[in-house]
Write a structure and sequence with these properties.
Blueprint lengths: L12 E11 L11 E2 L1 E14 L5 E6 L4 E6 L11 H13 L7 E7 L9 H16 L6 H16 L6 H8 L4 E6 L5 E5 L5 E11 L2 H23 L11 H6 L6 H25 L3 H17 L6 H8 L7 E7 L4 E9 L3 H16 L4 E4 L7 E2 L3
Parallel strand pairs: 4-6
Antiparallel strand pairs: 1-3, 1-13, 2-7, 3-6, 4-5, 7-8, 9-11, 9-12, 10-11
């Protein structure tokens, strides 16, 4: 029997589940060193991994898509597009950390809607990173796996995402939301106790082609804003260092577009911290108002919403049984997140499905989600 240097016997297979996530509030703040308030949900990706006896051949099957892909672990590079880049990206980042990965076969499937803003990509990355770490006894901690998964998206997928999605997928805790400081990476858990209310997601079932390119554009616009502000205040290294008062005082010295982008990020950071106070104070009404403010800021200042998202939010405003609603995720499609009375979900979904279909020609898809634990091995 083979024995590893640490005295353990090698594992020949492992099954890992990794959840999607919601973000209660704090959108487009993570790559600006800001605050976010995500949670892991009960929709997940399941990754099954086994050694195949080869030195450096990997084969991966995407069961939901009925697609497979093979690559040489010693000679691979990004493809023009597709889920394969998330897989290769994770392997590449772990190898950069000197991971000794041998040939493996993998198969994954899940129920996280692709393009729904629930981070199916982060779940895929984290499930593979965790599984490789376990099967090959690589010895990485969760933060190393989180960062490797994030950088896979940067370097192989081409999206300069922040760290929130991978963090939420990996570190989730049942019935808790997580306040993450994306600069220090300090985090704390807050119980999500909404009383008579629950979380409802409504998937617009659209994913506009602008999403990836505009995401990177917004990041560049924020960097442009930092450079402008830094000229007069050298201590500013990210938008995290900027107060609303500072921003307003510089309003006439920057393009209006850049001002609006920064205004969203700075005000959103403030809203996240106010939301944690609302949770601690058991004040869902205040939380709901902050959620609405977040949407209108994303719609008007950051300009990452869409007609479908705005329509769904608008349908909630006159409903006294809905406390708050906003677009969730990168934007240009995906889901709205709604805080709604538990007993009124079916009524609202029926109403909004009719009005949405009349407007756009198809129905939104509702998801009632529960808050669950983060990435881990599948319990047998």
């Amino acid at each position: 029997m083979e024995v590893l240097p640490n005295g353990t016997t090698p594992r020949h297979s492992v099954a890992v589940q990794s959840p999607g996530r919601i973000n209660l509030i704090g959108e487009h703040t993570d790559y600006n060193d800001g605050y976010v308030l995500p949670a892991a949900i009960d929709k997940k990706t399941v990754m099954q991994l086994k050694r195949n006896g080869t030195a450096h051949q990997a084969t991966v099957v995407a069961s939901n898509l009925n697609e497979s892909f093979s690559f040489d672990l010693q000679n691979f590079s990004p493809l023009p597009g597709g889920w394969q880049n998330y897989i290769m990206g994770v392997v590449h980042e772990l190898q950069k950390l000197n991971a000794d990965i041998h040939g493996f076969d993998a198969e994954f499937e899940g129920d996280i809607p692709i393009g729904g803003g629930m981070s199916s990509s982060a779940a895929l990355e984290c499930s593979l990173a965790f599984a490789l770490n376990e099967m090959f006894d690589l010895g990485f901690d969760k933060w190393q796996l989180i960062k490797a998964s994030q950088m896979a998206e940067h370097n192989f997928v081409g999206i300069k995402c922040g760290i929130m999605d991978q963090f939420a997928s990996m570190m989730g805790k049942k019935d808790q939301v997580m306040l993450l400081d994306c600069r220090s990476l300090e985090y704390s858990y807050f119980p999500l106790e909404l009383g008579a209310y629950q979380i409802l997601l409504l998937n617009t079932n659209v994913s506009h082609s602008l999403a990836s390119s505009e995401y990177n554009t917004r990041r560049s616009e924020c960097e442009e804003g930092v450079a402008l502000l830094k000229k007069e205040n050298p201590v500013i290294s990210s938008l995290r260092d900027v107060s609303l008062e500072q921003l307003v005082s510089h309003r006439d010295r920057m393009p209006k577009r850049i001002f609006r982008r920064i205004h969203h990020v700075v005000s959103e950071n403030k809203r996240v911290l106010e939301a944690t106070n609302a949770l601690l104070g058991n004040n869902p009404d205040v939380l709901g108002k902050l959620v609405y403010q977040s949407h209108f800021s994303l719609q008007n200042d950051y300009e990452v919403s869409s007609p479908e998202l705005d329509f769904l939010v608008q349908q909630t405003i006159d409903k006294d049984y809905i406390l708050g609603s906003r677009m969730m995720g990168g934007g240009f499609g995906g889901c709205t997140i709604n805080i709604i009375e538990k007993g009124r979900v079916a009524e609202f979904v029926d109403k909004v499905s009719v009005t949405y279909r009349n407007q756009f020609g198809f129905h939104p898809t509702p998801y009632s989600v529960s808050i669950e634990n983060g990435t881990g091995e599948v319990e047998s």
